[in-house]
Amino acid sequence: MPHFDSIESNRVLFIILRAMRGPLITLVCVYAISILGMVLIPGIEVDGETYYMSFFHAFYFVTYTATTTGFGEIPYEFSNAQRMWATLSLIVGVATWFYALGSIIRLLQNENFQQAVSEWNFTRKVQRISEPFFIICGFGDAGSLLARGLSNAGIPAVIIEGEIDRIRALELRDYKVPMPGLCADASVPKHLIEAGLQRSNCQGVVAITKDEEVNLKIAVTARLLNPHAKIITQSTTHVYEETLATLGDDIHIVDPFKTFATYLGATIHTPTLHLLNEWLSGTPGVTLDKPLSPPPWGNWILCGYGRMGKEVHAALDKQGISTAVIDPHEIAEEMPGFSYIRGRSNEKTLRKAGIGTAVGIVAGTDDDGHNLSILLNARSINPNIYSMVRQNRHENEIVFAAAEADMSMQPSLVAARRILFLMIASLLKVFFQEVRKHNLSRSEFLQGVIQQLQERVGGKKPNLLTIHVNEEMCGAVVQKIEAGQLVSMGDILRDPNNREHKLSTVALVVQNRSRKALVMPPDQYLLRKGDDILLCGKEIAHSQIMGNLQNEYTLHYVSTGEDLPHGYAMQWLARKFPNSLGKGVTLTEQ
User: Fold this and answer.
1) Which of 139, 271, 300, 376 has its C-alpha lying 20 to 30 A from 516's C-alpha?
2) pLDDT tens for each residue of 51-74
3) 232 neighbors 252 (Cβ within 8 angstroms)
4) CB 111 within 8 Å of CB 364
5) What is the DSSP string of 328-378?
6) Which range of residues forms the domain containing residue 135?
7) By the 8 A CB rule, do 433 and 181 touch?
8) 271 and 359 in one domain?
């Protein structure tokens, strides 16, 4: 792997020398000729002999004269010839310095020099990151939201963005962790390597640029340069999704429109599952004790039949809900029972689609102003209609909040939220997959999950923690397992201050090495090396649980109720007097 810090520093030095070669040579020549002239030109007579200036005095004089400082004539007064030469040296020296300063200013304004310096500083910042980090390619709405989520989770990220204005916006953000950014083309392999792709602590690459072809190139490059890195990319085109799916394991494709359609179907079919998902996602205003109002059954109107419209139509059709579609483009193929009205969504087309009797409307075009006008037109005709609106740009958040739609879909937010959970809580996807696969959402299972979360965690925004049962994260647990002892799920979830109490956290899912998952594992579940566990709880509880996992004394106490003697002296006493100290000191109240 090339050392890009030295390469970029050499590149900066090369550009400086190339731009300043002429001015430097000119300065050296002017100084040399001026000094030589001052040495050769005879001065005044001193003690009957003609004085000639030494090279040291000549160098000293020319140095402060050429910069117009002027300290006087040294070491004696000059002769007229010396004064004439000094005048000429001053004029030429000042002109040369102006030439050199102009070259320096041109160098500082040189785009190649600025880019080289930026890449050099960027590479140095990346090398200072010692924690696990991700590379985010694209700092648009989704990238900005994702960076904020990672910052809140305490995970550093390296950002590559092609627009300089977005990089300037990045530099103004108050992130809690390092977030170095580079204005460059993320599809160029050199820039990905500069961002730390081949470093051991690089956890993965997120490709969420505006161009899906660029996202594909980034994914391919990342897979070849670091086969072990997780790759997450955004794609809404079927052709690119097929190609991305062939790149191997640990690659995740996020389609915000499919994701939203899935959420919509869950909202209609299983409101409880959707409530749990929104609460785990930290959606503002969502609490477990306040059920979400599901969309009503009946006739719906879908305005816009693009990428989102097709996915939403399929989701509604799957639930048996009839829809009338309004779109200005001609449909490729008519389908039986499919009401398609060609035209722009306005009062005329809305009435033709049956807005008066419809129970819901989806404003799903790619124009925010048009979506809001559809919403206002629909409410003017049918004030009680259930409204769902698509917000394309995050900067329009204020006006969409004022519109007070029943459900808002922001593609960048949907993508950022999905990607964030794939990065910091990938087992959450496994949890919902297992719930759907085993039809747990149709039973009282979810109500039990919600009740347990309410009792342990409460209604505030939860904190998610993924535990990897390995030597690095769970040293004490692994040591005990390798010694042939048993460690249960219930043991590690006990309060280290009083083992009779449970910590404010719940184990949602555990996945073993063979990728077999168990939803809501019981306290009797025995941990194995290589298990991955997803916890949902309070942040303070997750800080305490790390002591249970890493400290052998704490783990022994929560497992047995006995407090092992600490230090050599107490251990010696325990061995010397086993009957009195063998059981240790129990911290629980009797």
Assistant:
1) 271
2) 999 999 999 999 888 887 777 788
3) yes
4) no
5) SSPPSS--TT-EEEES--SHHHHHHTTTTT-SEEEE--S-HHHHHHHHHHH
6) 129-254
7) no
8) yes
